Amino acid sequence: MKNLSIREQLIENVGNLEEKAVSKLVLKRIELGEDPLFIIDDCQEGLSLVGERYEQGEYFISGLIMAGEILRQVMTLLKPELKNHSSIHSKGSVLLGTVEGDIHDLGKSILGILLTCRGFTVHDLGVDVPPAVFVEHVEQVKPDIVGISGLLTVSHKKMKETIDLLNMKSELTRNTPVIIGGGQTDEQVASMVGAKLWCNNAIEGVNICQKVLS
Ligand code: B12
Question: Which CATH class is domain 6-84?
């Protein structure tokens, strides 16, 4: 990896599942004073390589598990740095969860960390959350925004079920803004599931939440 920039090296090493090299590079970039949000973005790009290699049959499920562990370690290294970037103003509350049938939680957790750092109160319901549980918690917690995560194509159906139920249950659940996110999310998915707000990048997600409440 002689001629690659430090950024490209990080992306490549995440893609190659080189755990130790990834930690080393992340520490080096922290030392250089880089914005942790850029480091997260590059790791996300590296994970896309893992996803592609999995699709091509080069990696198996163990590769996906390893990728998840690598990102978890990166987040452990970055968490103190993210806290340094945090805001003390309370911005409102967000209820987060990954839909039923989907156990991908890394992206949602990153969003949760960034929202907390920007002064939001985050209620994280975890993964595999049925539509009725989202609804029940919206009624209990009365969040300003509901954030629904899902990375699998089959999760879109559950997103729609969740949003439909929120729209049906009560005035409170109907009027709470919903944002959806996750790697496969785009404009088309958002319109299909009935979400007015969507993104597939946590930084943008935080900006949207800030805009909704301002
Ligand atoms: C790691 C990983 C796993 C790990 C997850 C570990 C964990 N604790 O999360 C494990 C091993 C469990 C796993 C399992 C599976 N996985 Co997987 N996995 C991945 C991988 C490589 C990375 C996912 C990830 O963490 N990305 C990094 C994060 C940071 O990105 P992100 O989630 O998109 O989140 C960002 C944004 O989208 C946004 N965001 C996320 N959520 C939200 C929510 C809101 C409200 C907002 C505003 C923003 C937001 O913020 C984040 C930061 O910017 C992806 C490939 C990829 N490129 O995504 C495949 C991938 C998602 N997996 C896939 C598959 C097929 C599976 C399995 C079905 C494999 C199997 N045969 O068992 C199972 C499904 C298990 C289940 N029921 O959920 C496919 C999905 C294909 C599809 N179209 O449905 C992918 C795309 C791989 C591929 N290319 O084939 N996986």
Answer: mainly alpha
